[in-house]
Amino acid sequence: MLKDLGRLFLTLGLFAAQNALAAEPIKVGVPIALSPPGAVSQGTQIKDALEVSAKLINDAGGVLGRPIVLIIEDDQGIPEKSRAAVEKLITLDQVVALVGGHQSSVVLAGIEVAHRYHIPYINTNAWADAIRQRNYQEVFNPSPYNSLPAIGLAAAVKALAAKRVVTLVENTDFGIGLGKGIGDQLAQTTVGIDYKYITLDRTAKDFLPALLPLKAAPPDVVIDVMLPPAAYLLINQLYEQGIAPSSKTWLFETATGDYPDFWKNVNDGGNLLVAFGPYHPQMVLSELGRKVAAAYKAKTGFDPNRLLFQASDSLFVLAEAIKNGKSTAPDAVIKALEALRWTGTRGEITFSEEKNDYRYHQWIDMPYVFYQYTAMNQPLADSRVIKDVGRPFDVSRLIRPK
Amino acid sequence: MRRIVDTRGRMRTDFLASLAVLAIVAFLPAVMTSDYWRGVIVVSMYFALLAISWNLLAGYTGQFSLAPATFAMIGGYTTGLLAYHFGATAVLGIPAAIVVGGVIGLLLAAIVMRLRGPYLALTTLSFAEIIRVVIANSIDFTRGDLGLNVPSLFERRLTSYYVMLAVVAGIQAGVYWLLRGPGGLYLRAIRDDEVAAAGRGVDTVRWKTYAFALSAAIGGLAGALYAHFAQFVSPELGLVSQAGLVISMVVIGGLGSLGGPIVGAVLVYVTSELLREVGGYQLIVFAILVILFARFFRDGLWGLLRSGYERRFVTSDVRTVTAE
Amino acid sequence: MLILDLLINGLIIGVFYALMAMGLSLIFGILKIVNFAHGEFYMVGAYAYTLAAVMLKVPPWLALPLAFFAGAIVGLVVERLLIRPLYAGYTSWGLKRDEYAVIVTFALSILLINLVDKFVGPYGIRGPPLVGNARVHVGPAIVSGHRLVASLVAIALVAGTMLLVRYSHWGRQIQAVAQNRLGASLAGTDPARVSGIVFALAGGLAAVAGALLANVFNPTPDVGLFPATKAYVIIVLGGMGSIAGAVVASLLLGVLESFGSVYISYEYRDTFGLIILMIVLLIRPQGLLGEHSREV
Amino acid sequence: MTAVSYLAVEQLTVAFGGVRALDGVNLAVASGELVGLVGPNGSGKTTLVNVLSGYLRPDAGEARLEGRRIDGLDPTTLAHLGVLRTFQLTRVFPRMSVLENLLVAGCALGLTPGAAEPRALQLLEEISLLRLQNTDAGRLSGGQAKLLEFAACFMMSPRITLLDEPFAAIHPTMKEVMARFIRRRHAAGQTFLLISHDMPVVIELCPRTICLNAGGVIADGETRQVFSNPHVIEAYLGEAAA
User: Rounded to an integer, what distance in angstroms lies between the CA atom of residue B71 and that of residue B75?
Assistant: First the structure.
């Protein structure tokens, strides 16, 4: 209800801006999950972030003197719905590009449509390498990619000298991809590690049946590769069963720890959890990054988080590319994006040309950290950085659960 | 001037009227140039096929299956998997989808043959869920929840538009042909009173099996066509809520009438696209509509239109019985 | 001690299934219809509990009965508005009884889910636990403290309901109507009133199940689908309309799923019950513990 | 004497749980007979008809039609063998027109729609429902429905017709139409087994009557004698007393 009113006012606001600038707006499509079973909290953060960024751009006079208008479609995190949404945005709303995409399976369906209509698609938060491996020239990835945490986690496992590692992955391209990826990295870096990943249904409610065997034979490391709300259920059930975090078992987490509603849904389970973070408050931000963070805090009251920066980077690189290419024509935008070398919220963004595995059109050297919560309800800022940007995983900083 | 119309006469009128509706749809593209809205109509034709197939089973045979969407999913995956694993084209995929759908329909018929009312509903619901869970979890074979990309059939949207329309018209004609013959009598007899039908010599087992298989085959065809149009299939196609959508279409359009399913499908789907802008109230609206129709206008929109028409042109003795 | 864990958790889940299934079974018993909106009674309870506790800061132990009443009221309203026509002079050849029941309860479920999705929001909110301590050691086994307490409450409710149906005045009326609607009404029991009672009771029980599990399965608009499907399986296994049967079947299913998902297949665990349901209906349409009914 | 064993029932037994609804029933009906089947409530009349028409499997014993075993066959098969019945609670197809109700029966038993229609219209004429041929059967009065259900048995001339309480709760004039119809068919050589509570009608219509009690035959013979048979009187009085 309110959500819709909000959306209504937003559009009105943008029309105002449009009239102010008296120029035809640049329509940007935003297919994201705003209702279940999608990762709604992701969708909402991305939505807020994009709206904040669009406002910053428009207040600064827009792009080529034209305002950016976001056209948001709820895809419920369902590939089928996303396909339809992207189709609608392109054919009906005639958007010049798509941003905000998250959840790999959904994006994989979306980029097919974008590719068919040859419309640039900027992937905000879909990690699956499969997206890059399609080698679609329309698709650009300022988002994290599975190989990034995979490499980081393998290093961490090695540093911990862990022998048995179990990854719990959601049944999506993101989850399964990362589950396999970690295995490959472990195989390369370390010898003699007993590794397996268990696929969980992200719509399931009760994971105990899958967890109890772990309880019987506790591994050294459990890695959670799920998205909320499933991730929250999983973390709670892992804790309540005394599986992890525990004196025997570390709990690692890849995509949930820095969500604004993390502590609302997770109690004791979150304490002493070690998480992968494409962003951490202790990271140095660019000037733009600080501006965005401030605007976001002002709008939502939430502290900045990785999705904020990923989302605004997606919109900013698009705006930048249109500026440089002096056109919204697909080919011009794509060319400009490929040539782009520009400092975003967390560092200089470039898209690799190398058509190899996860590399194509990927911002490869994106900064990331590992951090550990050392108390319940601890703000992200106070959490302890275990692996800082460009540094190795520092076991000595970890606190072992009792 | 008023004429007396027997049931067959009424059926003919219904059939012609439904063709008229399709004719209107055929002329739409002249005024409706947006590719998107043409796409919407294509999808509503997909739902029309499902609605027809379910109406044949529930409306005319009284077999209240909750698995109409399941056969669409089966059809979609048949052609999708053939393409994914063996690179087969639609030319093979679509017939395969019809056959596989039909065969699984036979299987379901065998399972539910002795079941009625709530038992039938529960069993078909379980059947639907089993198929969906299996497809959604056999990740290595079906890519599970992630869905499957399916090669497109026609480059031009207008082609898909008219092909889909033609298929609907063809199926509608086929169903009409079946219903106006003795087969139609047997199915409706089974719907009204299976026990009595058997006692009068109707081979209830055989005709129920036909109904299930036919309905399932149509569902398979619909799913396959949709998959090639959308170029994507996922277990979403078989969700219980999808079945709910199909049922709503038929109930609002008119359960057990020839035209109801088509009108219901187009109306419900197009409205839901329009309401989408207003932010997802469509399902609330439809749920309420369905309850109201089931409660007060049991013959649906089509029934209302027809009784209006007959009150005007036809002597009263065959008028629909909603009045009671 | 894997076996022990599986057994305990299977039984715990089973008890919650029972809360769902008993109501569904009661409804089927007196009206011979399946309520396809039963999962939404559960959902209503889950939200009533969580919102009361989180927004209004009602202590969990008070929010619990609150949830019961919320569910009971919804059940009562549904019965009055939608189910009455089934037996209160429902005369139409246009739409048969079963069909009406399926359509209406089906639509009702879609309606309730989307109403909540719209007006409360799609986010999962975690219900507060009934006990602070998140996990307790029972001998060798560790169990979630909340689950333990919740299941104890559930056991009490299940037992209470069974006693109520068997011995109380209302209970006897319910049995009477279930056995012979006409006879009961001749004997001076008002079937309509009994149906009202049954729906209220069913709604309440399902709602409490939702409330008790709100801390384990964060309530979302579609949270009811999963327990409802289980309840369908159970009433068929238990013999449609048999309360005791439903309870036994609930525990069986809980344990079966718990073991099956470890020893047979985790991915396909949700199909076990459904497959059994189909097999049972195939060989014994009246369910495992149900008794025969004559055709002509 | 093959005629005697036209319909032969031997040691037929049906048990529901502990209760024996039919307990070793023996009876024979000759071709062209019109036999009344009477007995107090729960004596097993309807159960017998349900077995003969295939709606119930006997637990023991057998039933033969012209020497062929018919017990355990399903209703459809039996209908095709010419065993047709009506139901105590009338069963018509409510959402089909009166005409269609007859067409179903005709086509199902092998008539082409072309051949079935005139036959149906003629029957409707006979039971004076022609006027209502296009009305939904669900809107007929109880009596009209019974007549329709009855007529449906005669789309193809049956081998034997089992009538379960055809006179129950119908208007006297309807009763007359029904009785006339039965008499005419009987005269034409049709075989009937007629369950009825309505003594006068049975006495008037049926030359021969069989009386069941507690699942067994207690009297079988010329109708008036059966009704004067002490066991029969006692059975009915017993019921009255109860």
Answer: 6
